[in-house]
From TrEMBL:
It comes from Gossypium barbadense. The keyword Transferase applies. Its EC number is 2.1.1.56. The keyword Metal-binding does not apply. One of its GO terms (molecular function) is RNA binding. Pfam families: mRNA_G-N7_MeTrfase (PF03291). Keywords: Methyltransferase, mRNA capping, mRNA processing, Nucleus, RNA-binding, S-adenosyl-L-methionine, Transferase. PROSITE patterns: RNA_CAP0_MT. This is mRNA cap guanine-N(7) methyltransferase 2. Residues 1-268 form the MRNA cap 0 methyltransferase domain. It is an enzyme of class 2 (transferase).
Length: 314
């Protein structure tokens, strides 16, 4: 995200915020010196909430809002007369729900490519599937070690810590590339939320098909460490027991932030710079069984722990 902002600095950027409602921070763009904001959300209530916040705070930039679902609607058709050419498109929530099916993920990325001008960036935050799956596999291994003489028919489907509980809907040792659902409930939450694992090699493949090149995927704990000077103050103000006096993450906040990752893609501008290199992925003839086999062998679903991180060429 920082890289995308640095690359486009000084252009009076247009920003498009996907799934902008649902408690999104209406002040997050105040210091970014953007010139125009486009908010898109599937719920009219979410649109109205953000629009009212914008109107009441008298922003220094113009804005417009559209009710649409970027994972099912064709935004090129719906917004063809709006001439939206965004420098930045962000998806700070709900990307994981688009991985319920390949069609939804594909439509979302196609819409992102339509919204971006050449050279623009797509970035956001999503659960780190590698970290989550690694925790799940440890549970499976521990369960089998405890029951080695009984050969159980099912595997444990629940990950617990003092901060959260993750429960997979289907008890299985293997996972599909799309539609692997789980419930996430933080200790302070009343109810759990449903998410899907994001298979990052598939995200990179579909993004490339839509004309978006991979730039970076980074676990949120590492992102914080790399940008501590920018975010330590915000974390200090967010509440006690998150950082030590030197601004380092305490175990509780490290545990929670480690469940998430940042991602950045770019729509190349052939007239300015050569396209960024996307990690080499299997071509279209490479079937899902083979892709799944690679993931199972390497434990690869996303950035996750360093020992499970995917390489530049899978």
């Amino acid at each position: 995200m920082k890289k995308g902002k640095e690359e486009s600095r000084g252009r009076n950027e247009w920003v498009c915020d996907l799934y902008c409602g649902g408690g999104a921070d209406a002040e997050k763009w105040d210091g970014a010196q953007i010139s125009h904001y486009v908010g898109i959300d599937v719920l009219s209530s979410g649109i109205n909430e953000v629009r009212e916040a914008w109107e009441s705070q008298r922003k220094s930039f113009t804005s417009e809002f559209f009710e649409a679902d970027p994972c099912t609607d064709n935004l090129e058709t719906l917004l063809q007369e709006k001439d939206i050419q965004a420098d930045l498109v962000c998806c700070l929530q709900h990307l994981q729900l688009r991985f319920e099916t390949e069609d939804k993920a594909r439509r979302l990325l196609s819409n992102v490519s339509f919204l971006l001008k050449p050279g623009g960036y797509f970035f956001g935050i999503t659960p780190d599937s590698s970290t989550i799956w690694a925790k799940y596999q440890k549970n499976v291994e521990a369960y089998h070690n405890r029951s080695s003489s009984m050969k159980p028919n099912i595997v444990p489907n629940c990950i617990r810590s003092e901060n959260y509980m993750i429960t997979f809907e289907i008890e299985e040792e293997k996972f599909p590339l799309f539609g692997k659902k789980y419930q996430l409930k933080f200790s302070s939450d009343v109810a759990a939320e449903t998410h899907c694992l994001v298979h990052f090699p598939s995200l990179i493949r579909l993004a490339r098909e839509a004309g978006l090149e991979y730039v970076e995927i980074q676990n949120l704990t590492e992102f914080y460490d790399d940008n501590k000077s920018l975010f330590a103050g915000m974390m200090m103000n967010a509440g006690p027991n998150l950082l030590d006096p030197r601004g380092r993450l305490l175990p509780r906040s490290y545990d929670v932030l480690g469940l998430y990752t940042t991602f950045i893609f770019q729509k190349p501008d052939p007239d300015v710079v050569p396209p960024l290199a996307t990690p080499l992925l299997p071509d279209s003839s490479y079937d899902n069984d083979e892709a799944r086999k690679i993931s199972e062998q390497k434990g690869i679903l996303g950035p996750g722990p360093a020992e499970l991180r995917f390489s530049e060429a899978l």
